[in-house]
Write a structure and sequence with these properties.
The protein is mostly beta strands. It has four helices and eleven strands. It has one domain: F-spondin domain (Immunoglobulin-like). The N and C termini lie close together (6 Å).
Length: 216
Amino acid sequence: MKKSVITALAVSLLGGALISATASADSYFRVTVTNLTKDITFTPAVVATTRKGDRFYMGGYAASSELETIAESGNGGPLAASLDAYDVAGLGFIGPGGSDYVEVATSGAYKSVTVASMLIPTNDTFFGLNGVAGPTGNKTISFTVPALDAGTELNDELCVSLPGPGCGEDPGPVSNNGEGYVYVSNGIRGVGDLDADMLDWNNPVARITITRFEMD
């Protein structure tokens, strides 16, 4: 099995919360994330092997504090630490049209995949997979996923509350009276410092491909 390769910055954003695969692993998944947007960047994604049906969010319900942190600042450490996972790893930043992949081990009931990443520059927009069953055999499955709003921060689109290109330093989580529930993002509206003509998107925003391999 090829070991997961984590950039120094991704490790920082994940808070070092990595769980190493053990000798009991029976297979692994190669998880590839592709950015389908024109001008949005993805923060280093949390990628984990979890139990089937394990969820880190539910549409129409309030976001957890761990989801709030990754959706507002791109810091996936708290979410990675909160998951009931067999193996957790992180990707690097992925620019428009780019891809990155990582390999995570599976064992026993831990044969599903969870992925989470923030879209920048946005207030609290993310995408992900929610404990989706991985493929069987030496097969590949693929998903296209929409952008979701965590509902934890108002979408003021002002650089003072936005991390990412063109807005300077990461302000960290802002938590300023958002909508209160997770919903499908309505994109960039151009109401603050962001240019909607340049940055707005049509869903889906990402393609996530999972290939299963047996252990050598």
